[in-house]
Amino acid sequence: MIKKFTSGNPIDTQAVVEKFNALPIAEFPLGGKFENGNFVFEFDMADSDIVYGLGEAPRGINKRGWVYNSFCSDDPFHTETKSSLYAAHNFLMLSGSKTFGIFIDFPSKIRWDIGYTTANKTVITIDGTDFDIYYIDGTKPLEIVKEFRKSIGTSYVPPFWAFGYQQSRWSYHNAEAVDAVVDGYNKAGIPLDCVYLDIDYMERYKDFTVDDEKFPNFKDYVSKKREEGIHLIPIIDAGVKKENGYDIYEEGRKNGYFCKNEDGTDFEGGVWPGIVGFPDFLRPDVRKWFGSKYKILTDMGIDGFWNDMNEPAIFYSVKGLNKALDKAASLKGQNLDLSKFFELKDTFAGLSNSPEDYSSIYHTVDGKQVCHDQVHNIYGANMTKAAGEYFAEKFGKEKILMFSRASYVGAHRSSGIWFGDNHSWWSHILLDLKMLPSANMCGFLYCGADLGGFNENATRDLVLRFLALGVFTPLMRNHAALGTRNQECYSFENSDDFKDIVEVRYRLIPYLYRTFKKASEENDMIFRPLSFDYPDDKIARECETQLMLGDECMICPVYEQNVGGRYVYLPENMTFVKLSGTSITTEKMSKGTHYIEVALNEVPLFIKDGRQIELCKPAMRTSQLDTTDTVMIP
Amino acid sequence: MIKKFTSGNPIDTQAVVEKFNALPIAEFPLGGKFENGNFVFEFDMADSDIVYGLGEAPRGINKRGWVYNSFCSDDPFHTETKSSLYAAHNFLMLSGSKTFGIFIDFPSKIRWDIGYTTANKTVITIDGTDFDIYYIDGTKPLEIVKEFRKSIGTSYVPPFWAFGYQQSRWSYHNAEAVDAVVDGYNKAGIPLDCVYLDIDYMERYKDFTVDDEKFPNFKDYVSKKREEGIHLIPIIDAGVKKENGYDIYEEGRKNGYFCKNEDGTDFEGGVWPGIVGFPDFLRPDVRKWFGSKYKILTDMGIDGFWNDMNEPAIFYSVKGLNKALDKAASLKGQNLDLSKFFELKDTFAGLSNSPEDYSSIYHTVDGKQVCHDQVHNIYGANMTKAAGEYFAEKFGKEKILMFSRASYVGAHRSSGIWFGDNHSWWSHILLDLKMLPSANMCGFLYCGADLGGFNENATRDLVLRFLALGVFTPLMRNHAALGTRNQECYSFENSDDFKDIVEVRYRLIPYLYRTFKKASEENDMIFRPLSFDYPDDKIARECETQLMLGDECMICPVYEQNVGGRYVYLPENMTFVKLSGTSITTEKMSKGTHYIEVALNEVPLFIKDGRQIELCKPAMRTSQLDTTDTVMIP
């Protein structure tokens, strides 16, 4: 049962689609008080209580013992001490001595101190007085999740082919580079469905342009790749390059579509294209305008996109940079003491995504000027909505692949997400795993991390182990940054090991797709913490290295280097299945603690006693899969 | 059996004290070739081979699957993809299909590609042609370690009281702050032996000065604290502040003791004090001069030091900063494109510890001008040697506590090390654990990480779990950075849990001290990978979350948040001991995989069947311990 409590005049984020009567905030069951322009409330936790939620966020499935901020952040260093990633997913759930969920519908900052200051207390601070809070009663976590999910509407379902394996890099910068990727996979006999186009496919990083020199006759090229069964997925950035003669920029400027400075002039920030205007995606007319531009690429046969830099990421503002240069000039010839030196260094380091810049950007919401600070967390979601509204109208459902970096609850109805610019760190295998159920709670079903890790150099074994988790994530994409080691499967020695892993994905697609569709239709989760299924099992309750998958399975990736296996806990008797290429081994295992051996070319999976899942034969493309020709295992 | 192979005319690093005949490098058993001014050699590895070594370095006990650089680095972000920390410990050992050790005695860069480029190949590149390589034959890893350790001389043993619990912070900046720490521990009833003085105790960060306003009558204050059983441990930095009238700087300048620019003028770098001169520690006369300055503090009753910033860390050079300011000035008023913007940002970000600066510093070695690049890795070790030589002459052995941030093999004879500026990350509990055996291999016995983590904010549970590993590390020091949350044991709720953990340390001191002394006398390790003891046990061989301790024990800290226990693997039957305050529980456990429950106030420990260890009663100070009144457990 959901109750809605309202304070002031909240901005309509369109996160919730179900209608509820608004009750006064004074009746909010957890109490709370207004102080210094904030609303603060708290609840106590027993030692063994678990706190779930926050979707795409740092740290564990159990969010206890840290402080988080809802603030969409372009920060690629996903270390343990970060408080935000790219999303703001304001759903939280306590489970244990008491069980309830809350969703705070508020597009600006929220601080979640979940046992950080005081171990057994959660203190939540909403940075404003205009908000809705939804309180969800229930006895079981999954029940609460389903109730919440029902209220926010049905989750996005991508096209079937988006369950194939996908290869990305910043950047396959021209047709030859893309061809080499497809050839590399074909020659290695490794399945592949998509190749990504990062920022360099564009003409000087201009949205909805294609550089003719790099991709001559792009429409023909897209069509040729499609004949080979390959979908090209271009990136779209939030900022529109300021360039005379660039029609989209000129339209935007002429019509006043860009975000403003306080004085009404266009705000100018530096991103990949240099100076850009940021479309004011909070305005329906701007969304309609920007969304319609995707047609330029869909007309060329493109049927998938990833929206990026939409927190929005701002490398610098013209104002900020000039200030920094002035500071440097003023210090010239002085004998700098240490504090002045650090001040100068920090000035340059702090130019990107600076709070000062965000505070100086203005939107128009319902005809009123609103400071960006107050709506920061729905900027990216509205960019995605712009695209989603166009695709729904033009193509209907399940036709266009779309996922975004920044997001807010509500965007789950029109897109998936990826977990942003992670690193080639072993610890990021588990970070990926831990975000899957949390993202599912908030409606994001089509998601996954950059497999192999985006930043810095990967090793062969890391990519294999990362892929062996990615086999189960709806978005299975290998992606790496400029300047890092090549990490396409064929780039490493003995690519047969990679073939063995990726083929397992294709064999699982009938099962994964069915499980995905069911989760979307029934507002269910694909991935659940073990504690959801075994709430009275102490070891299962604390487990953050395994997940339940669908109604049948438990997954447990290997996440350490230089090991031939891992510990696993079985909360009940299960069958241990090892999948590798077309081979299968099965072994009955009893409830309890085990050490399992898993080679680099094997995918471990546990199936509950009495359950089975279907496997088809692998194919080089999803379009070649015969999903009706399946065998049941075990 | 050790053989020494020499190429060219190596600089005498004094790492090795045993005399060996120098054989020509052409006879080096692993071959190798000279190319482009480097010497490169390689060896193959079987799939199950383990590569040990490199002392203080990132990643695992098994170094396979990454590329490391020997280059003492002031870099506080100890993520998985770093290639160096603060030390250069050039010992490596293969164990498996072949078993041998090598020590490369070379004070400049070495690149160790250990299965990074090619999974089953190690490629080592020495950045020069003047070096010694020691090749150590043997059949067992521990045998090889002992042989190597014998060749490099007996490891440093600190005073007995240095095994007590130690509290540090950047900074307890005056006597009141130090008093508050001692009071806090006394009131909480938590044992304590040392309080650290970070840079703010000095007068404007000048080495060997004490700020009279912060610490009036310092000598009396030191003596008063000693009466309370507390040792004050001041920091000493490598750079000497350039200040007129500061006697140490003026002596150094007058006598030409500082490192030079190529033109013979003093090299000037910015560190904490602002502009400093860097003593040329490679010169015996400079070491004698600098070492004798410690007398200023020992005369005031100080009997322990930590040497810092001796990689050396250089925030900026005067030359570098001026160049950056010129660049900023030249860009003013221009419409910066993105590449120019990043170039500018990187220029400021790259001012610290810049390769360009290191290349422009000159030392005098045996009367000859030598570029810093060629001797970088022995700079910090020679700073420590300066102190060690003075202490040995003045006080004899085991009287003065001394440990350093930068180090090279050889420094282990006169000091310990700490593992530098780590983070309050759960993953850094395991990083600490993994470095312990590696550091032991290279002679560093007195060592440990900053417990609770230095950078960023710690949580109560993290500090408790970190301390529960620190209970076993010879250096047991809690240390935190400026601006972070207080992490003294009494700063958190329910300090009794902390008392329970720290008391366990004091109960273990007789055992730990005996084990330490034995390891020093017998060139043995205190901590060993499980694989050393159980080479044929596949699970034990791969285990990097447990360590063997002495002849009797196995340790296995809890290293994850929000869990009440962990998996543990017993390679043989053992007794599971839980220690907490004065309580003990024991349980016989059989060989195999177990899940053990460990509360936040408990220290888990396993004792081999048929072995026992001694425990004394806890006390508030090591000086109050009755080490003769012990009980044997189990």
UniProtKB/TrEMBL annotation, chains A, B:
Tell me the ranges covered by the Glycosyl hydrolase family 31 C-terminal domain, including all copies: 525-611
Its Enzyme Commission number(s) read 3.2.1.177
> Which segments constitute the Glycoside hydrolase family 31 TIM barrel domain?
156-514
One family from Pfam that matches here is: Glyco_hydro_31_2nd
The residue ranges of the Glycoside hydrolase family 31 N-terminal domain are 39-113
Task: For this UniProt record, give its keywords in alphabetical order, as a comma-separated list.
Answer: Glycosidase, Hydrolase
Superkingdom as given in the UniProt entry: Bacteria
* Record-given protein name: Alpha-xylosidase
Name the gene: yicI
